[in-house]
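Lecture notes, structural biology module. Today: joint structure prediction for complexes of three components.
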Amino acid sequence: MNPVNYLYLAALLFAIGATGVLIRRNAIVVFMCIELMLNACNLALVAFSRMHGNLDGQIIAFFTMVVAAAEVVVGLAIIVSLFRSRHSASVDDASLMKL
Amino acid sequence: MENLIALLVAAPLLGAAVLLCGGRRLDRTGHWIGTVLAAVSFVVGAVLFVDMLGKGPEERTLTQHLFSWIPVEGFQADVAFQLDQLSMTFVLLITGVGSLIHLYSIGYMEHDERRRRFFGYLNLFLAAMLLLVLADNYLLLYVGWEGVGLASYLLIGFWQHKPSAATAAKKAFLVNRVGDMGLSIAIMLMFTTFGTFAFGPVLESTDKTSEGMLTAIALMLLLAACGKSAQVPLQSWLGDAMEGPTPVSALIHAATMVTAGVYLITRSGAIFNGAPDAQLAVVVVGAVTLLFGAIVGCAKDDIKKALAGSTMSQIGYMILAAGLGPVGYAFAIMHLVTHGFFKAGLFLGAGSVMHGMNDEVDMRKYGGLRKYMPVTFVTFGLGYLAIIGLPPFSGFWSKDKIIEAAFAQQSDLRSWIFGGVALLGAGITAYYMTRVMILTFFGEKRWQPAPDPDTAPSVEPGIEVHPGEMPHPHEAPKSMTIPMIVLAFGSVFAGAVFGIGERFVHWLEPVTSFEHPHPVVGVPVITTATIVVLLLGVGLAYLQYGRRPVPVVAPRGSLLTRAARRDLLQDDFNHVVLVRGGEHLTRSLVYLDHSLVDGVVNGTAASVGGLSGRLRRLQNGYARSYAVSMFGGAALLVAATLLMRAV
Amino acid sequence: MSQVVNAGFPLLTATAALPAVGAIATAAVPAGRRVAAKWLALLVSLATLVLAAIVAVRFEPGGDRYQLVESHAWIKDFGVRYELGVDGIAVALIALTAVLIPFIILAGWHDADPLETKSKRWRPTQGFFALILAVEAMVILSFEATDVFLFYIFFEAMLIPMYFLIGGFGDRAHEHGDAAAATQRSYAAVKFLLYNLVGGLIMLAAVIGLYVVAGNFSLQEIAAARANGTLDMATNTERLLFLGFFFAFAVKAPLWPLHTWLPNAMGEATAPVAVLITAVVDKVGTFAMLRFCLQLFPEASKWATPAILVLALISIVYGALLAVGQRDIKRLVAYASISHFGFIIMGIFAMTSQGQSGATLYMVNHGISTAALMLVAGFLISRRGSRLIADYGGVQKVAPVLAGTFLIGGLATLSLPGLAPFVSEFLVLVGTFARYPVIGIIATFGIVLAALYTLVLYQRTMTGPVKPEVAAMPDLRVRELVVVAPLIALLIFLGVYPKPVTDIVNPAVGHTLSDVQQQDPKPEVEAAK
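The predicted structure, tokenised, for the full assembly:
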């Protein structure tokens, strides 16, 4: 199978994720979309690794997974504490980061 | 002997320091400390004088170098004294009259709770004035020059709780500062021209520079003299200065400080001799002031202000004489000394009258006082005879010589103009002094009940005044009459002592040089004319004030009288042009500083702030919109990369 | 460049380190021991005065240009050295600083007393005195530094304590709880900081530029290289660098039209801090013009002289006119200071011995005279709780000693002969007149205006009928008299006998003039002796 198809899939997934981040307001969904984008990147990296015949891409993909896992921990903690203080999981309610 | 010179200055300076820093524990003895130290200075002066008389005329100059004052590369200012015949004359006048006035003040200021401080200021004045006449360079002279200005400021404003006194003091200082500006520019010119400002080197090298430079220096010195000696156009402060206690008016604003301008011009004779144009300016200033003061003196009803006008006019005579060059210097100084005696005596007499009249100063409310105050009447009367220049009293000997000298100038036209003015001035002098005499001592009593001190701010404090009480004129205490009697002796005899055999002229000749004047008409003619003119003045005043009852409230008077009452409108001019104009200028500058200078900076800050305010809107806090800009940026980056590849 | 490096006791470092250590110690005094902190600060400042006196005594006027030199490598990669040394001008100004700080501390004795106990750790008093000592340390170091970069660091660093002194401590007696006053004060503090930071930023660019051109930061090496021709600068480079330095110093000095921060800062700060600003900190600006601008950029200095003289002249007349128009006592003194700084800058750039000696003397005398006037004004203000001239009247009657000392301070401000400022003002005028007669004459008008604003101030506050609000005003207390009397004694002493100062200053001025290759104009004729 042509590895380029994996890239197409990765692009598609990335686009879906990006759209989700932009248009959804629920923090959990936004968060999941971010994960989707990360995984799209991972897919692309692995595909590149295959296409170029070295392992660099796969190594980076492992790093990404570790970072993503850490991110999930921190991100979910933020969302939970946000939900506790605001009783909502909408990202638009957390708009205090302005002067 | 020369080491004594510093003691002349040090004694009163010590007095000032002790009295001003000593605090209340000196309240009971302070006036004696001040008087004794003034007398010490006089005694030292007398010792030096006797010593000086024992030497030949050419060896009489003593110098004392104390220390180097401002040593800077190329600039040498020393604290050094020079005592020659001219300085000696002033030292004796200042310390002599000064000591007498200290004595007088003991009685006059007896009830003032701040008498100690008054004596401290008087001593400060003596020290500064002595420094002025003893300095051996112009910069040290400048120190004394401003020092007497400071003492004058403090003493005019001695009764500071009166706003009029505080304002008068400030005015005197400010007008004097304008003059001081002239002196400092003159010193700067001397420094750049001669590289020094010590009397000796400067006055001996005047022939090495151009006439234009000498004229510039001389005109600046004239400006200084105008300020200190109350000459037109800087005369306006002297009338207001009468707000000070009367002894101050007698010492500072009649006998000594105001004559400093004459000293300055005489001392700088070598500069003026080389600058005929400046000399003409001096003569013009003297002549104009002579008439100006005399006219003002005719119109004033306030006895002290009438005398102030007279002072201005008499100093006008001196300045006029000093402007004539070697012909006139000696006579200027001689008139200065005789004037010191009779004008101080007249002021002290006026103070005595006020003392007895509940501090009333309006002559229209006097009248018939000769029976109640005989000593004052006689001493004042002798001073009167001296000032109008009746032979053989003091004023005649000096004033007549000045009139003669005024008739002896380069061109006939100038001789006639300035001689005529001097002659006319003698007549007016006789007129206004006769007026003062008649209004005060003759005629019927026009006394008024004492004013309420709360509503009449001109009342001198310290003397018990009960509102509504009629005055009880009485002779002043001994401490006040003795100085008046001594000064009356001076008014009678000083002129003859100086004048006969031209003793005074010969005494000063080594310093000021001397030429005999050659008037356009004969000397006897001028003398006769002078006497005739003064008799006319006396007669006119007698007709106006002696024959008719004097109204207590001044009549409206002619246009000239009204203008003269307002000091010939000079104050009004100053007020409109300088005070108002200055106020507008400063106000608009304050506004501009805030709105323009500060405004530019604040405006920059505001526009930066406004811009950042706009930019801030982009930060709306929605994570999604930040994400959009992130994606947009990434997309742009990718697009740009692709575009670069394609090209 | 051969020079004797002082291998013995590092006297200059000690003179600056003592107040610095004192500042830290004062700040560390526990909250309950306010009085101890005050005494500690006072003792430290007095000990600094002793060290400064030793510096002045050890300094030999006829000796090397820079003495008591200390030199150590600091940042080798950039050629930055820790290099200290003093010439006569610096000695005079260090002495001034060391003399004034004890009086400032004593005058501000109660200025930082907390009105209420906010918390156990609330220690404004300790902070106030520690900040004053910190400023002293930095000012002394900037007078001592002969390395341009080192100087720059202290020149900028002193802004931080000054900012807190202006913004943190106002006239507490009357503005307690007054929000508007606090706003104005923080406005003044921020304005002070911004103006000086902008100046400093431009100077930083010039400092870097200088390094690029010269390759090191040593004042002496660069000046020597400039003098013997081994370091050539393009005309435009030199001018730009000069302007960069000059701008920073002109802000600090302050020169018209960069002056507007001073009236705000002096008006809002307490009187002792106002004295610290104008009498001590601002002197670094004029000092640096003399030391850095003239030595590093002699050609550019001469090129800029006409423009600077005109600005100085405007400062003189403009400052005086604005002082006449003020209604606030402290702002009036501030504008008077602007006028006086005009004289100082004029004297520096007249490039004559009299002008520059006069300007240096002027810095010293202005420090003392402004301190006397401003501190007495502060005592007055603390009694009535108002800075407005119109709120006073007749004080002379109820508090004669206060009025008397105020008058002497005022007379010193108007340069009365016999008091110290006269000597310096006259020297500046003569020095300027010798080369630029017209400018000298116009500047002379300043003396009339000075008399006007001083006497109007005195008349309106001290004379006239006693206002009911001031009727119960107490006269000067012992502590206040201890502050004022020595200052007045100094004013009189230096007015009568300025020789001790001129002897130290004259050789340094000679060196500076030879740097810019200027000679005094000769008198027109040789006077008879």
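Point to remember: Residues 294-303+340-555 of chain B form one domain.
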